[in-house]
Amino acid sequence: MAADKERLDILLVEQGFFLTREKAKASIMAGLVQVDEEPIDKAGTKVLRSSRILVKGAIHPYVSRGGLKLEKALKLFNIDLNGITMLDIGASTGGFTDCALQHGAAYVYAVDVGYNQLDWSMRSHPQVKVMERTNFRFMKLEDLEGQQPAFASIDVSFISLKLILPPLKSILAEQGSVVALIKPQFEAGRDKVPKTGVVRDPSVHTEVLQTVLGFAEEAGFYLQGLTFSPIRGGEGNVEFLAYFQSASPQSIVSSQLKDEWIQQVVIDAQKLQNSSGG
C-alpha cells in the first residue's frame, strides 16, 4: 500500500534522527543514510516505514528511539526516577525501559501484550521483569512479584487510555506518577480518523486531549504537565505526552490552565507536523 511508504527525508524527521528535513536531506546527499543496508542518496526516495534506517555517526542512547519520548518528559517535567520501581506498559522493544534504567530506575516491570519484541539487552537485564503476553487491562497488583510500582509509562497502540488508566489506579502506589502517550489515532472516534490513519485536524487533537485528560482526572490521575512527542507515531501521527500524579486534590491544575496548555501544545504539534512535511 502507498500509505506504507514515505519520503526518506520525512521518515528521518519522524523517527527522530533529525529535527528538520533540511538536515535530513543534507545527510542523505552526503551518503550517510542507508535503508535496509543499501545507501540512498536522494531525499525524495519513497521507502517502507518498516525499513531499517541507519545514519552513519548517529548516536542512539536507547535500544529504540522510543526512549527519546520518555526522555523528553523526564527532562521537561523534572521527573526523578532514581531508585524507583516502575511499570512500562506497552514495553515493545524496550526504549522506555532502557531510558528509565539509564535515569536511575531501580526495577522495571516491562509489560506487553505481544511476544518476543523486547531487545535482548533489556530481556536479560537483572533489573527488568519481562511480562510478555500480558494484557494490562486485566492486571492486578498481586500479579507483580516485587515492589509496588511508584511510576508508570504508557505507550500503547490500538487501544484507548480509558481502558488502561482504571486498572493502573489499583496497581500504582498512592503517591505515584505517570507519563502517558496520548495517540489521537486511537482515541478519536472512527468518524474523526481519515482512511489514511493520520489525524491532522487540530480540532480533533484538541477534542482528544480534552476527553482523555478529563477521563484521567475522573480516574484519579491529575495532570501536571503536557507536551508533544518529539517523534511522530505510526503513519506520521503527532502524539502527545501527559504527566499525571495520583495525588491529593491540591495538585489539580485549574480548568482554565489546562485549556491553555491544550491550546498551546496543539499549536506546537502543528508546527512539528508542518516542519516535517505533514
TrEMBL record:
GO molecular function terms attached to this record: methyltransferase activity
Segments forming domain RNA-binding S4: 6-71
Keyword terms, alphabetized: Methyltransferase, RNA-binding, Transferase
Pfam family of the protein (one): S4
One BP annotation, GO: methylation
Classification via SUPFAM superfamilies: Alpha-L RNA-binding motif, S-adenosyl-L-methionine-dependent methyltransferases
Family of this protein: Belongs to the TlyA family.
Protein name: TlyA family RNA methyltransferase
